[in-house]
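Memo to structure team: turn this sequence into structure tokens by end of day. - J.P.
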Amino acid sequence: FHFYDGVNIPFSDDNFDLIYCHQVFEHVKKPIDLMKEISRVLKPGGAFIGSTSQIETFHSLSTYNYTPYGFKMLLENTNLRFVELRPAIDGLFLLFVRLSNRSKFLSKFFTRYFEKESPVNRFINLAGSLSGKSIIEINLLKLLFCGHFSFHIIKYRKS
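Reply from structure team:
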């Protein structure tokens, strides 16, 4: 383990092939500065993979909730570009998780949708398919209602 100030990553430039960040960025005090550091320490062609909250309410000293566009703005002035953006648990079931916190049974029932597709997302799939929407259009619809989203970002090679 290496501890650091949350901004200045204590490694040399172009050092890592992969950086993984699961549900952390909503807690970062200086996200633009950290994203620049991730760009600096990631090797060209390296991947930055993870997830972040979109509409999740306050939890564990969170400071930001990101929209996909807002998260993309963090990539400005870096060599990082999205490869893929995917919706995760939807906002409605995320709310149910919070409301069911005191009931072990209900909490277990709702938290399973962190690992499998929720009924809301299944409904969006079905409605989108029946109306002839593409996978991209369906995922964009899901992004409107998601509580979290996952990302795959790559550091492009300088030309």
